[in-house]
Amino acid sequence: MIRPATRSDVPTIAALIRALAEYERLAHAVTFDESDLDEHLFSSKRHAEVLLAEDAGEVVGFALFFHNYSTFRAKPGIYLEDLFVQPEKRGRGHGKALLAALARLAVERSCARLEWAVLNWNEPAIGFYRSLGALPMNEWTVYRLTDDALTNLANA
């Protein structure tokens, strides 16, 4: 079962994010506070949304996403920031169900695309995405400003 997250799910979402970070070998990078997560997901100015996958009443995975925009197509898109299913619950269709639910939302919201990034070493995820018909955008490189570099540019 796939359902939208509610405010009461924030501790569960936080635990799933930490599990994802552990899987991606990035646990050291997790610095969020659950109150920030609550505000950004459930305040009047939402920055992101979450879908949860449940199996027998237990939350086993999540998809955190937000809207972006295609200037060339003059339509919104959905950017999937994180997709994660607990390792012991994989292979049961939860990841595909989360992506299918996101695809339905994209169609319902007249979005031009659904896109995401995947770590180059994550061959199981790459194979899964390719099996769904997703194509890599090899001609694009993601750039990111954080911390001091972000502040320095903001103050330039």
Structural notes for this entry:
- This protein has five helices and five strands.
- The chain has a single domain (2-154), classed as Gcn5-related N-acetyltransferase (GNAT) (Aminopeptidase, 3-Layer(aba) Sandwich), CATH 3.40.630.30.
- It starts with a strand and ends with a helix.
- The model has no long low-confidence stretch (mean pLDDT 95).
- Helix 3 (94-108) links the parallel strand 4 and strand 5.
- It has helices spanning 10-23, 34-42, 94-108, 123-131, 147-154, and strands spanning 2-4, 49-55, 58-70, 75-85, 114-116.
- It has a five-stranded mixed beta sheet with strand order 1-2-3-4-5, with helices on both faces.
- The radius of gyration is 16 Å and the shape is globular.
- The chain is α+β, with helices and mostly antiparallel strands.
